[in-house]
Amino acid sequence: MKRDFQAPGRSPVFAREAAVATSHPLATSAAIEVLQDGGNAVDAAIAAVAVQCVVEPHMTGIGGDCFAIVTEPDGRLTGFNGSGAAPRAATPEKLAELGVSEITDTSPHAVTVPGAVRAWETLLKAHGTQDFKTLLKRAVNYARDGFPVAPRVAADWANNIDKLNEDPVSAARYLINGSSPETGAVLKFPHLAETLEAIGAEGADAIYSGPIAEDIVAAVTAKGGVMTTDDLAACHTTAVSPVVRDYKGHTIAELPPNGQGVIALIILGILERFGLENLDPFGAERFHLEMEAARIAYAVRDKFVTDPGYMNVCHTRLIGEDYIDQLAQMISVDKRLDTIPDASLAPQTDTVYLSIVDKDGLAVSFINSLFSDFGSGIVAPESGVLLHCRGRSFKAQAGFANSIDGGKRPMHTIIPAMALKNGAPWLSFGVMGGHYQACGHAHLLTNIIDYGMDVQAAIDFPRMFFDLETHALQAERLVPPATVEGLKKLGHSVVAAPGAIGGSQAIMIDKARHVLTAGSDPRKDGHAAGY
Hints:
This protein is of the alpha+beta class. It has two domains: about 25-55 and about 75-240 and about 375-395, no CATH class; about 245-350 and about 415-530, Glutamine Phosphoribosylpyrophosphate, subunit 1, domain 1, CATH 3.60.20. Helices cover about 35% and strands about 20% of the residues. It has helices at about 25-35, 40-55, 90-95, 115-125, 130-135, 135-145, 150-160, 160-165, 170-175, 190-200, 205-210, 210-220, 230-235, 260-270, 285-305, 320-330, 435-450, 455-460, 480-490, and strands spanning about 15, 20, 65-70, 75-80, 145-150, 185, 240, 245, 250-255, 350-355, 365-370, 380, 385, 415-420, 425-430, 465, 475, 495, 505-510, 515-520, 530. A seven-stranded antiparallel sheet has the order 1-20-19-15-14-9-8. The chain has a seven-stranded antiparallel sheet with strand order 7-4-3-11-10-2-21, with helices on one face. It has a three-stranded mixed sheet with strand order 16-17-18, covered by helices on one side.
């Protein structure tokens, strides 16, 4: 598909030395600066995400979690799971004793240990060349001296006034006289600046012990939470082997559970059986198959995916050809599946994402999240650490795959990804958007592989997802009306999406020509850049 230069849009960025794609222009600039100063892709990723923790506070923060895949030029893959665990005392029995039957966004029990900063440090030790003090310089400056609020950030901020007003510290730090900042308003976060400086001087331990750790625990326990400083001190990042599956001559690499990356592979496996390349990419048939595959795969997710130490089936079993055959047979090409029987799933036997590739071919697929907008809305007052709400994924009651338990990592929606071709790095990519992400990976890849779109066109292309409760399809505005009508004829309920669905960044690597092609989602404020 060729770009129509009379229509709004943007071209992909072509570069030879290095490329960066992030959701915020200041983060992209920070990464480029590090690369041009001699840093590598991992160094640049840490600098960029630290800036995003300041300038996109509703999307990410040092009080969140992080996952990454690092790919060497020869195709060697290393995954990093930087998700924190539930406090040791957070058991179903303890929550029942406290009268908690549901874990909401703003519940103190939604606050799991924030794993991001420990993950950054682990990545730097494994693959980086520069230190925290150097890499956090831009983030510290923006937090202390101020940054202008970008348009999409301002729009999202305005939707969270009530949430932020629920807590006096959050309201004081993130609202202006009870209102959200306007586009272009200059904000400063001095407490966060001091914390970032402490991380630069002391490393990740600055967060996980001492005064900052005590400040975090005090903020959580004041709300009725059970986190302790010992929980923070126990935080660690796990190096993992990505789980891989081929899709039409391309090897797609995702991180294993507790993330939902394996679900993207299941969706792709199901779609591979339906000849997607022969269908109109805008058509009802394509979206019907994609949504049905996603509905089935997400049912698998909800039944099985959690902390791998608690799963009763190996994740590799979920991408076996016989199991995917079993799932694919549930789909009818001419009718929506009314229900997904639980028994049929048994095998037989808000977030920032960035992608960076450096001059040596080292590629980083990196995602950092607070889960919901502004996370839990709980701010540690002295350190300025806004805490995530990843524990909202847990069930408060026992008996579920994702039931809360002491020291257990929750099921994660955030998933970085890589794709290889002929054993060499080919695409570093990711999709933001909470639960949408696994479906988004499949959508992006089929746009590129099945329909020949360049990375920017594939990112721009209209999206659809289903409401997790009602299963009604939510379509972005640019999905053609004929497609909506066609889906309704197949039995789907289709409604307008309440807003843009997710966001994405991707960099394609052409080793033969030594060319990088980068794209960044217009649904966000950011852009791709290279040199």
